[in-house]
From TrEMBL:
Similarity comment: Belongs to the DapA family.
Its EC number(s): 4.3.3.7
Location of this chain's protein in the cell: Cytoplasm
Record keyword Amino-acid biosynthesis present: yes
Annotated protein name in UniProt: 4-hydroxy-tetrahydrodipicolinate synthase
UniProt keyword annotation of Cytoplasm present: yes
The entry's keywords: Amino-acid biosynthesis, Cytoplasm, Diaminopimelate biosynthesis, Lyase, Lysine biosynthesis, Schiff base
GO biological process: diaminopimelate biosynthetic process; lysine biosynthetic process via diaminopimelate
GO molecular function, one term: 4-hydroxy-tetrahydrodipicolinate synthase activity
Gene: dapA
NCBIfam families membership: dapA
Length: 292
């Protein structure tokens, strides 16, 4: 867990205008993150539009990212979904070279019971050579992984080491922090919640807006780590509006538009996502001007 303290970013997957993967821009994005002070990277989290990538494309992105990072930062692979047997197979086939952990989103659409969620992660834990980070994002998956289930998994499987929490429930965050084993960690999965979650005891964030503003996110997390919440609040406030705008028409369309304005690739997304509308573009441009 020492490798994944602080500010992490769930990298977008850049696409060319024809929808193919833009590896040149992906390299540019990786270098941007390293230069601006990100502590670790997540390759093909859900922000990477993983659900619309083929098996071969995922393998290409993971290998390319590991090769370009080349050990300069810790690297986490996103491998999750709602077909447990398929995810187990992906994890067993995964080339772990260059990676230190797997981030696995709770099953979506199926709406499993808490026992179903537990058994899903039990199977993943048994299959993985790398530590597992749980990911709870009920606004996307349609079901919440309760604090009790999280703590049960943390107690039962030594290679389940953390949770990326995006439930928005501070009661749930607090229960996890109160009941978890000592070596299990809480990570913010929602940019606007990072500061208050770290005040409670979270160790950092896996960020979306960090794709476009890695230095601000890294500085925010560092200030929280130092207990300097006054300066952290200033950065938190600066990022609030632009972060909200990134999600009004679907993630990662918003943050890809910001990256395009920074000359980091195109803002192409794969269907069923589409580019953000002109009114949202105008609002984002106004917020970008403030951040300059």
């Amino acid at each position: 867990m020492n490798e994944i303290q602080g500010a992490g970013v769930a990298l977008v997957t850049p696409f060319n205008a024809d929808g193919t993967i833009d590896f040149e821009t992906l390299e540019q994005l990786i270098e941007f993150q390293i230069k601006e002070g990100m502590n670790y990277l997540v390759s093909l989290g859900t922000t990477g539009e993983t659900a619309t990538l083929s098996t071969e494309e995922r393998k290409q992105v993971w290998k390319f990212t590991a090769d370009k990072v080349n050990g300069r930062l810790p690297l986490i692979a996103g491998i999750g979904g709602n077909n447990t047997l398929e995810i187990v197979q992906q994890i067993q086939d995964f080339d772990t070279n260059g990676y230190c952990a797997i981030l696995s989103v709770s099953p979506y659409y199926n709406k499993p019971t808490q026992e179903g969620i537990y058994q899903h992660y039990k199977a993943i834990a048994a299959a993985s050579k790398l530590p597992i980070i749980l990911y709870n994002v009920p606004g996307r998956t349609g079901s919440n992984m309760t604090a009790a289930t999280t703590v049960r998994l943390a107690n039962d499987f030594s290679n389940i080491v953390a949770i990326k929490e995006a439930s928005g429930s501070f009661s749930q965050f607090s229960e996890i922090l109160r009941d978890k084993p000592e070596n299990f960690q809480l990570i913010s999965g929602d940019d606007p919640a990072t500061l208050p979650m770290m005040a409670l005891g979270a160790i950092g964030v896996i960020s979306v807006i960090g794709n476009a503003y890695p230095k601000l996110v890294a500085d925010l997390v560092k200030k929280c780590q130092e207990g300097n919440y006054e300066e952290a609040r200033t950065i938190h406030s600066q990022l609030l509006d632009i972060t909200d705008l990134c999600f009004v028409e679907g993630n990662p369309a918003g943050v890809k538009y910001i990256l395009r304005q920074k000359n980091i690739g195109d803002d192409t997304v794969r269907l069923p996502l589409v580019k953000i509308s002109e009114p949202t573009q105008v609002q984002i441009q106004k917020e970008m001007a403030k951040l300059k």
